[in-house]
C-alpha cells in the first residue's frame, strides 16, 4: 500500500458554497483492489466519493491518480483519465436500448470498442440477451448491470460505484458483488460506497468507516469485520 | 357513383389538405420538441425561426428566378431551400452563442429561458418584417397541379374533381423524407444517439464524455433545418406572411404537447391529430352531404360545425383535453 | 422604505422624457403618450401581480384587454332595439342552451361511472346540445345582423354611463380568468403559457367573428365619453375664457388638450387606487404568503397552503386589472377596433414592461409601463432619424435606401426584443428590483 493507485488526501470541502461536509478525509485504492466506504447515514460516504471524482469544491487536500495530481480536473476530464463512475440513481439512459447505453459509455473512445462490448456481455450475459430492449424496461438488478457495464465501456482503470446494491434483493446483491470481484480481478481498481456494510467489507481489501465526514476507522476489510468496536457501532453487533 | 362523388369531395377538401397541413405542423412540432428535449425549454421564437428560414429561401428563390434558374415543373424554392436552412442555422447558432448559452451555464430555470425566447421572438419578428416587410409574398412557381380537378373529372367521369396540387405533393413527400432522415440520424448515428442520451439523462451524458455544446449546436442546426423546411412548405402551400408564422406557434405547440413534449414520434402524431381536427371541424359538409342524402333531406345550410376563423379554438380545445386527461401527451413525453 | 431616491430619480427621468417629447413633438403627442402610459402601467400592474407575486406565466393579456373593450361597448352603446326585437329573445335562449349543454355534460361526467357508457352519453349529449344550440343560434344571428348592417347589425349595449364599463370590464376578464384558471392553473408554467396564449387568440377570434355581439371587424365607433367633447368645449364661452386666462388662445388646441388632460386625470385616479391596493396586498400577510408560494411551492403546500386556490385568486385579480385597463383604453379611443389587437402589442409588450421595470415590484411595473410605452411610440421617429443618417451617403432612389427607410416601422419590434434580452441578461431584476 505504499503507492496507492488513487488517493484523495486530506480532503476538506462541501457542495457549492455550502458548509463543509468532509473534514480532512483520506480515501485511497491500490491497483486491482476493492476499497469500500461504509458508515452511518449522513456520514458523507457518497460525498467522499464525489470529492474524489471532482464533483465537490475542495479547498484543502488533493486527489492523485497514478501519481498525477488531478485535483483541478473536471469530472469529464477524469473520465478521460481512466476513472469510471456509476451514480447511485439515474445511472442509465432509460429510453435507449441496452446496447445503446453501452455505446454511449464508450462515447469518448475513438478506437474500435467491440472487444470491450463482448467483454461486458461476457461479464453480464443477461445484457446480451436483452441488448435491443429499452434499458428502462429492465429489472432493478439488470439496470445496475447496465450501469456498471456502461462505466466499464471506457476501459477505466478505476471504477467507482455509489451504492450499487441499493434497492435490489439479497440474491441479486450477492451476484452483483461476485461480478464486482470479477472486475477487480481483471486489474481494475474499485472504489465503492455501500449501505450493506457487512457484505461489502467481506469482499473489500480495504475498508473506510466514515463518521461525520471524518475517517473513523481504516483497515483491511477483514480486520474491520473483526474489530469489536466497529461491529458494535456500525455492523449491528 | 354518388358515394364515390362524396368520397372524392371529402378527399379533395378534407383528407388531402389535412395531410399536407399535418405534415407542416409535424415538421414544426419536431423542432419544438427537439429544443424541449435537449435544451429543456419551450421555444416561443420557433414560429419566427420558421419565418426567417422561409424568408431567406424566398429571397434566394427570387434571385434564382431573376437569373432564369428553375426546376421546371417543380418550384424553384426547393433549389433555394439549402440556402434558407443555412441562413436559419446561422441565425439560431448566433442566437444561442449570444443569448441562450449564458443561461445554460447558469442553469437558469426553464421559465426564464421561455421569457428570453420571447425576446428572441421579438427580434426575429422585427428582423423578418424589416427585411421582407409584413405583407404576404408569393414565391411558388412551376406546375400548379399534379392532377387538376378538371383532368380528374374527365379521367374518372365523376362530377366531383380531386385536385392534387404540386405544393401538397411536395409537402407530403418532403415531410416523409425529412422525418425518415431525422429518425435515421437519431437512431443510427453516433451524434444522433448522443443527442438522445443527452435528452434522456443529462448528467450521465456528461459522465460519458458527451460534449453538451456540441449536442446543442447540432440540435440548433437540425431545428433550423426542420423550421425552414416547415416554413417553406407552408409558404408554398398557403403563401408567406410573417404574422401567420407567429400564429402557427399555437397549433405547433399544441401538436408537440398533444404528442408528448420531447418525443419526436409524438410530435408527428400530434401534428396530424391537430391538422385533421382543425380541417374536419371547420369544413362545410354540404358538398359531401348532397351526394349522400336523398334530395328531400338536402341541407340548406353549409353544415359547418365551426367557422374556419375558429380553427385555433380547435387545436386549443384538443390541447386542453389532452392536458387534463393525459398530461404527458399521447406518447409519453419528457416531463422533467 | 418603498420609494428611495434612486426610484424617484428614475420616475423623474421618465417624466422628463415624456415632458420633453411635449416640447419637441407638441403637447398633444406628449399627452397621448402619458395617457397610454397610464393604461400600460395598469396592465403591467396586473401582469406583475400574476408573475411577480405568484410566478404565473400569463401570456394571454391581449384577451383580457379585449374583454375590457367589449365591456365598454356592451355597457355604453345604445341598444339596437330593432335587433333585440327580431333576434334578442332567440339569441338569449340559444346562449342559455349552450351554457346548459356544457353544465349538463359536466354533470353527466360527475354523476356517471367512468367507462365507455359515460363517454358515449357525454358525446351524444354534447352533440345534441350543440345541434340544438346552432338551430336556435344561427337564425338569431342572421336576423340581428340583417338590421341596418352598415350602421349597427348588432345588439348594441345597455346605454349606461361608460365609466361603469371599467369595473364591468374587470368583471368580464375575471370571469374568463376563472374559467381558464380552473382548467389550466395546475399545469406546468409553459403549458399555462400556451393555454393563455391560446385563449387570448380565441377571445379575439370570437369577438372578430360574432358580429351580432361586437360588429366584428366592422368596428364599433362613437362609444360615449366620460369627458366633454371638443366641439362642445369650443362652443362654450366659459371654457374659452378660462383657456385664454391660461394663455391658450387657439380653441381647437385648448379643447383637445383639455380632453386629454381630463382622461389623464381619470386614469391617474384608477392607477393610484390600484397601485395603493397592490402595495397593500404585497405587504400584507396574503402578499407574503403568495411570494412564499412562488419561491417554494412544495414547502408552501407542505405547510398546508392551498396553492392552487391562491393561484386562482391572484390569476383572477391580475386578469381583472388587465380587463379594467382594456375598458379604459377602448373608452379613450371611443372605438373598438378588433383588427388592431395583436399579441406582440398587447401581450408581449406588457411583459417587456414588467421585466424591464422590475418583476415583483409594483412601482417597477408602473415605471416599466411608462418607459416602455414611451419607447414604443418614440422608437419609430427616432429610428427614422437614425436611418436617414445611416442612408445619407446612399443616392436618393437607390432601392436599398428606400427599403431601409420604409422598414423603419419594424424597428420597434427589434428594439423591444433587444431591450428585453439585454435587461434579462444584465439586470434581470429590472430597474426597480423586488425588495
Automatic annotation (TrEMBL), chain A:
InterPro entries: AAA+_ATPase, ABC_transporter-like_ATP-bd, BCAA_Transport_ATP-bd_LivF, P-loop_NTPase. SUPFAM superfamilies: P-loop containing nucleoside triphosphate hydrolases. It comes from Pseudohalocynthiibacter aestuariivivens. Keywords: Amino-acid transport, ATP-binding, Nucleotide-binding, Transport. Belongs to the ABC transporter superfamily. One of its GO terms (molecular function) is ATP binding. It comes from the Bacteria. This is ABC transporter ATP-binding protein. Residues 6-237 form the ABC transporter domain.
Automatic annotation (TrEMBL), chain B:
The keyword Transport applies. CDD domains: TM_PBP1_LivH_like. Its main location: membrane. Pfam families: BPD_transp_2. The chain crosses the membrane at residues 6-39, 51-71, 77-96, 108-132, 162-186, 215-236, 248-276, 312-331. It is a multi-pass membrane protein. Keywords: Amino-acid transport, Cell inner membrane, Cell membrane, Membrane, Transmembrane, Transmembrane helix, Transport. It is found in: Cell membrane. Belongs to the binding-protein-dependent transport system permease family. LivHM subfamily. This is Branched-chain amino acid ABC transporter permease. It comes from Pseudohalocynthiibacter aestuariivivens.
UniProtKB/TrEMBL annotation, chain C:
The chain crosses the membrane at residues 7-24, 30-49, 56-77, 83-108, 120-137, 157-179, 191-207, 257-278, 312-329, 349-377, 409-427. Pfam families: BPD_transp_2. Coiled coil: none annotated. InterPro entries: ABC_transp_permease, LivM-like. Keywords: Cell membrane, Membrane, Transmembrane, Transmembrane helix. Its main location: membrane. The keyword Transcription does not apply. It is found in: Cell membrane. It is a multi-pass membrane protein. PANTHER family: HIGH-AFFINITY BRANCHED-CHAIN AMINO ACID TRANSPORT PROTEIN BRAE (PTHR30482:SF10), HIGH-AFFINITY BRANCHED-CHAIN AMINO ACID TRANSPORT SYSTEM PERMEASE (PTHR30482). This is Branched-chain amino acid ABC transporter permease. It comes from Pseudohalocynthiibacter aestuariivivens.
